Q: What sequence folds into this?
C-alpha cells in the first residue's frame, strides 16, 4: 500500500515548466530515493507534497485521500536549505519546533532529551545556535525533523555537512526509523547512499519523470549481460560463437580475470560448461551489475 501517490503533477513558474505530468508512488515503510540533477524539479515536488507550493495540475494523495494541511503535520521535512534561529538556545529552539508539530511541552522535552543523549549532544541544550558548527547544527535540525515520530519523513540531502562518522550515525538512524515503520523520501545526489538505503527510486530530469522502480530491478534492467570470470589455466579464453565474446582477459601468473559479454538468451550453465570443457578451472563467476551512479549519468546525459 502507498502512503503517498502523486499523479500527473504539473507546475509552471511563468513560462518555466518545473514539473511536467510527474507521477510517483511512495510505498509505506520503504525508503524512496528522489533523484535528479540540480534544477530537475525535485525540490518543487517536495514543496508541493508539503503544501508549500500549489501545483497547476495533478493530485497528491496521502493514505488514499487528497492530502490536507493536517496530513502535513504528520510529515517530517528536512529541507536542503537549513535554518535555525541563531540567537536562540538549542534546547529552546528544539522545543519550539517540536511543539509546532503538535507535541505537548512534556512529551517534547522527554523525546528531545532522549534524542540528544542518542546523538551525544546532551550538553548542548543551553548553547546558542550560533555557537554550533555546521555539522552540529545539522544534528539538531535532523532531530527536530523526526522527534514527533512522523509517518512520512522527507530528507533533502541529509548527509550534507557531515563528516564520515556523523554521516554513518545518520544512516543508522534512517534505517532504524524505517525498521520502526516510518516511510522516508530521500532526496540526494549521493548514489552510494541510494544503493545502500533505498528500496525504490524515481529519477526526474528537465521536469519529467525519467524512470521509477525498485533499485535492484533498475540496476539489473540496465545491465549489459556482462560476467566477471576469475579462473586458472595455461591459456586465455577465446570467444565462443553463439555463447560469449571476451571483452578483456588479464593473466596474472596463470590466474586470469576476464570480462565476458554473453549472447542474448544464453544460460550461465552453458557458458560455464564451455569454459570448463576448454580446460579452465573456474574460481569465481558473477554478473556485473551497473552502479546507480553510472545509470544516473547515462539517463541524464541521454536526456
A:
Amino acid at each position: 500500500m502507498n502512503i503517498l501517490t502523486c499523479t500527473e503533477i504539473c507546475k509552471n513558474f511563468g513560462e518555466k515548466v518545473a514539473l511536467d505530468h510527474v507521477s510517483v508512488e511512495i510505498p509505506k515503510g520503504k525508503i524512496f530515493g528522489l533523484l535528479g540533477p540540480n534544477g530537475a524539479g525535485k525540490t518543487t515536488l517536495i514543496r508541493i507534497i508539503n503544501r508549500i507550493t500549489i501545483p497547476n495540475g495533478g493530485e497528491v494523495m496521502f493514505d488514499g485521500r487528497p492530502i490536507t494541511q493536517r496530513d502535513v503535520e504528520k510529515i517530517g521535512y528536512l529541507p536542503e536549505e537549513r535554518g535555525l534561529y541563531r540567537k536562540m538556545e538549542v534546547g529552546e529552539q528544539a522545543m519550539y519546533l517540536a511543539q509546532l508539530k503538535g507535541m505537548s511541552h512534556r512529551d517534547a522535552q522527554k523525546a528531545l532529551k532522549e534524542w540528544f543523549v542518542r546523538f551525544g549532544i546532551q550538553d548542548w541544550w543551553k548553547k546558542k545556535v550560533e555557537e554550533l558548527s555546521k555539522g552540529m547544527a545539522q544534528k539538531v535540525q535532523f532531530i527536530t525533523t523526526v522527534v514527533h515520530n512522523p509517518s512520512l519523513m522527507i530528507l533533502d540531502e541529509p548527509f550534507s555537512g557531515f563528516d564520515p562518522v556523523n554521516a554513518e550515525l545518520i544512516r543508522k538512524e534512517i534505517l532504524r526509523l524505517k525498521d520502526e515503520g516510518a516511510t522516508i523520501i530521500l532526496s540526494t545526489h549521493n548514489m552510494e547512499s541510494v544503493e545502500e538505503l533505498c528500496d525504490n527510486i524515481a529519477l526526474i530530469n528537465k521536469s519529467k519523470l525519467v524512470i521509477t522502480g525498485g533499485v535492484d530491478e533498475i540496476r539489473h534492467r540496465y545491465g549489459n549481460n556482462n560476467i566477471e570470470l576469475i579462473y586458472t589455466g595455461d591459456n586465455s579464453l577465446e570467444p565462443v560463437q553463439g555463447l560469449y565474446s571476451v571483452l578483456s582477459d588479464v593473466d596474472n601468473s596463470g590466474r586470469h580475470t576476464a570480462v565476458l559479454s554473453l549472447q542474448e538468451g544464453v544460460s550461465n550453465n552453458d557458458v560455464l560448461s564451455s569454459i570448463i570443457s576448454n580446460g579452465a578451472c573456474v574460481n569465481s563467476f558473477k554478473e556485473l551489475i551497473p552502479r546507480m551512479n553510472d545509470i544516473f549519468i547515462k539517463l541524464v546525459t541521454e536526456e
Summary: The chain is about 35% helix and 30% strand. The radius of gyration is 24 Å.
